[in-house]
Design brief:
Order of helices and strands: HHHHHHHHHHHHHHHHHHHHH
Low-confidence stretches: 228-234
Helix content: over 70%
Number of strands: 0
Mean pLDDT: 81
Shape: globular
Strand content: under 5%
Length: 444
């Protein structure tokens, strides 16, 4: 009964967001509350919600300070020279731009952090997309797919780290057989960029916006995105070209400390934001103006993260996630036992879409591994299989960095999901096939 209730809740929640019946904030909050009451958990509602809010609080703080940090640097014009150089190289060709997006985001995503990947990739490339009239959803989709490959498979990335920890595995033994899959997945993302860029080239050609007729809806979307990134219509007055080297050094220092793990990410970005603000805009009134300019974007993302915490807290607190996992295992026939790694890889797509990484890897994965052991499947294969659904997971409204991504390109999360879902599912299937072909996963 609890599993059925949980499945219905997830279906209703997904429908309301995709059909735009409710805003993501409202759907993430109201749907689980209603279903928790219907399930008889009204008395524990407050505790479950608080547990969920505590779970996402560090992510909310990180996103708040990261948005402000990079927002100040964008205002100061740090990424302008990079955009100019890229523009000269690609010469306005959407194919080259989309493939360049894949290469840049794959490299940045090596640190395993979604917030950093999106901040750097989108901050650097969105002005270029705006300038030639490319759909920013391509930038968002390619960046997301890049992160799913690099962060999903590297032992220092979130999903793999959780899988290794909960299974008690050796990181090298887990990762080395996955290297061919990761390399193949990275090449696939670049090829995806080529396909999306080729389609965009047919739409706008290799030309500047002012020489081509562009869909008014796209133009409006791009104008809104440009306004979001600059946070001010007269952005030239906030440029600080004489401080460009200081700002570059500051970004490099923050990224180095982040990768080395010397400081937790939220206080690190807080300190970085304060330094960027004080050095670039020493005038107190100007500081207030710059913070206010980015406040709308930052507040929207933080609210969505806390709403996601409500959903995750109730889903976990009511034990719906456990019931759904047990129901799945119970319907797998004994004859399918040898196919268990492939089954886990495929089911990781819907599971990780509706669950946080913590809920899936610490709650569901041990159950799947225990069931697989009955068929002679090793835990390390189940751990590898569990990360194959990460391209789909990163579209989930339960992923904090996803809200950052869609807010930076100024699109609704449902529009992003409708555009990206086929590419995410296809990417998950491609890396699953690559893992099977290269021996990272086996079929007994």
């Amino acid at each position: 009964m609890l599993a059925i209730l949980g499945i219905i809740m997830i279906v209703v929640f997904t429908y309301l967001i995709m059909a735009k019946r409710l805003s993501p904030i409202a759907s993430l909050t109201l749907v689980p509350v209603v279903f928790a009451v219907l399930g008889g958990f009204g008395g524990k509602l407050g505790t479950m919600i608080m547990d969920g809010l505590k779970l996402v609080a560090p992510s909310a703080a990180l996103l708040l300070f990261a948005i402000l940090f990079f927002g100040i640097l964008i205002d100061a014009g740090l990424f302008d020279p990079l955009v100019e150089k890229i523009l000269k190289i690609v010469k306005g060709d959407p194919v080259k731009i989309a493939m360049g997006t894949a290469i840049l985001s794959l490299l940045v995503a090596l640190d395993g952090d979604g917030t950093t990947t999106y901040m750097i990739a989108v901050s650097a490339l969105l002005p270029l997309y705006i300038r030639i009239g490319m759909n920013p959803l391509i930038l968002a989709t390619v960046s997301m797919l890049s992160l799913s490959i690099m962060s999903g498979m590297t032992p220092w990335g979130g999903p793999a780290t959780r899988a290794i920890a909960v299974m008690g595995l050796d990181a090298s033994e887990f990762f080395i057989p996955l290297l061919p899959t990761m390399i193949g997945g990275a090449l696939w993302v670049v090829f995806t960029g080529y396909l999306l860029g080729k389609r965009e080239r047919r739409r706008i050609g290799i030309a500047d916006l002012k020489h081509k007729k562009v869909d008014p809806e796209i133009l409006s979307q791009l104008a809104a995105a440009q306004e979001t990134m600059s946070a001010d219509g007269d952005s030239a007055s906030f440029k600080r070209p004489h401080l460009r080297y200081f700002n570059l050094l500051l970004v490099s220092a923050v990224m180095t400390v982040l990768v080395m793990g010397l400081l937790p990410a939220p206080p690190l970005f807080l300190v970085g934001f304060i330094m960027a603000l004080m050095i670039n805009y020493p005038n107190l009134d100007l500081q207030k103006e710059r913070i206010a300019a980015h406040a709308n974007n930052a507040l929207t993302v933080v609210l969505l993260v806390f709403a996601a915490g409500v959903f995750a807290g109730i889903l976990s607190g009511t034990k719906m996630v456990d019931a759904i996992a047990q129901a799945l295992i119970s319907i797998i026939p004994d004859s399918a036992g040898p196919l268990f790694p492939a089954i886990v890889a495929i089911t990781s797509m819907p599971f990780t879409f509706v669950l946080s990484n913590d809920a899936y890897y610490f709650g569901v994965l041990p159950i799947l591994a225990e069931a697989a052991s009955a068929y002679g499947v090793s835990p390390i294969e189940i751990a590898r299989a569990s990360i194959m659904g990460q391209p789909v997971h990163l579209m989930s409204p339960l992923v904090a960095s996803t809200f950052l991504l869609v807010s930076m390109v100024n699109v609704d999360i449902s529009a992003f999901q409708r555009f990206a879902y086929r590419w995410a599912i296809l990417t998950a299937l491609v890396i699953t096939c690559l893992a099977l072909l290269t021996g990272a996963l086996t079929l007994l």
